[in-house]
Structures are given as C-alpha cells and as structure tokens.
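Our consortium's second objective concerns turning raw sequence data into structural hypotheses that experimental partners can test. To show how far this objective has progressed, the report includes one record in full. It was chosen at random from the queue rather than selected for favorable results. The single chain below, 128 residues long, was entered without modification.
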Amino acid sequence: MSEAAPSSWRMRSGGFANIVTLVVMITAISTLVGSASAHLSQNYYSKTCPKLFPSVYSVLGGPNWKVKLGRRDAKTASLSAANSGVIPPPTSTLNNLITRFQARGLSTKDMVVLSDNNKLTSLVLKSL
C-alpha cells in the first residue's frame, strides 16, 4: 500500500541532515575555540573582583604592612609643592621614575610596589 520513498529523495534528505549536523558541529567547535582563545582585558579582575588582589597578596605572602589611617604629613594642599619636582609628573619615563625613586633611597622593587601597575605597564610598553 505505501510505497518506499524514491532513493533520490532519501539521499537529498539524508544529505540535508548531514549538512545541518556539519554546520552545527562547526559552529560549536568555533565557539569553543573562540572563547578559549579570548583574552581578558587588563583590568578585568580588578573591576569584577576588586577585593581579590589584597586577599591573593596576603595568602601568597606578598608585600604587606600595617599603616595608621589618616594623613599625618600635611594639613593643606599646595600647588607649588606639587609642582616642585618632588612628585614625578604623569609623563615621566621609566628611567626617570627609577632615578627619582633611587634618589630617595628606594629600589626598583619599592617603586613597583608603591606605583600604579597600569602606569608602569604603559611606561614599559612605551620604552620598548
């Protein structure tokens, strides 16, 4: 009573299913490979987990020390003192910063610990 589908029709439907399967597999693989090779932005963790870094440093034994809260060195701000050359300007080169810190008896390691990591990274990249 019912006839079998013609062989040409069976091949086309089977071919279509194979093509759909192939497209789905390629899409899945490209998504996995793309997400695995994606790079995080430089500030990703500092924005998403701001309390992570102090915890990591304390657990791993990074540099830390207790300090008293509040400033004891100045009661007022002074534009002339800020521009006197003691504090390096934001346009300083890496060599300039190292020289300034060494003049105060601080090492390059001290400079890295006390300075903003993003600023130092950009200076190193500019000097290369």
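The partners drew two points from this record. Helices lie at 7-36, 44-48, 52-60, 79-82, 94-103, 108-114, 117-127. The chain has a mean pLDDT of 71. Both points have been shared with the crystallography group to help prioritize constructs.
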